[in-house]
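fyi for ur records
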Amino acid sequence: MSSVTTVFSAALLAGVVSAFAPPANAEIVGPAFAVDGDTLDVNGLRVRLFGIDAPESDQTCRDAKGAEWDCGSAATARLVELVTSGDVACEPRDRDKYGRVVADCSAGGIHINATLVSEGLAWAYARFSMEHVEAEDRARAEGVGIWQGPAEVAWEYRSGGWSQAAAVVDDGPGHEDCPIKGNINAKGERIYHTPSSPWYSRTSVNESKGQRWFCDAAAAEAAGWRPVGGAR
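which gave:
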């Protein structure tokens, strides 16, 4: 094969690849369907909603009376409703470890990411972004969706829950069954940290100052503690 032919073939291949792989920052627009509560397929491209984490499809939560409800299915159903109003437009923000585009998306003038959090159908994923923490605080105060009662956050549900997290508690014996750290910061705010919190290892509990250990998030919130930045 001549060098000219080789160059032409390479250029042709590059053109084909670019046609199917849009630039990293290019807006993604087109018809979409919901894969789960925080993932879309937009024009054949898998898109993860930025800054939020919805309950897993098979996940259940508790309402105010302690009854189970299918919060994962509810989140997916709501996302289906949001994307059926017309083409979805997504602004890429990042790529995750699975190679998916992570983006802010809207449909019919509605910001999808923010809507799911404000309706209590997703948590603010504060580990990656603080954008939706205020919306989550409002949803929690209103007791809507996942905030009706106890709910295991999606990232802990995926990782296997407390059994794995409790095994890495490093503050001495006696806290394996109640590993949540109830800290009081310099402003007097009562904030709790679960083992999956990025600040967990840097947080200590001084019981002489009113700080406490908790066995679950519901107990911490009932006692007046709030989660750190929505990232539990």
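The radius of gyration is 22 Å. thats all i got for now
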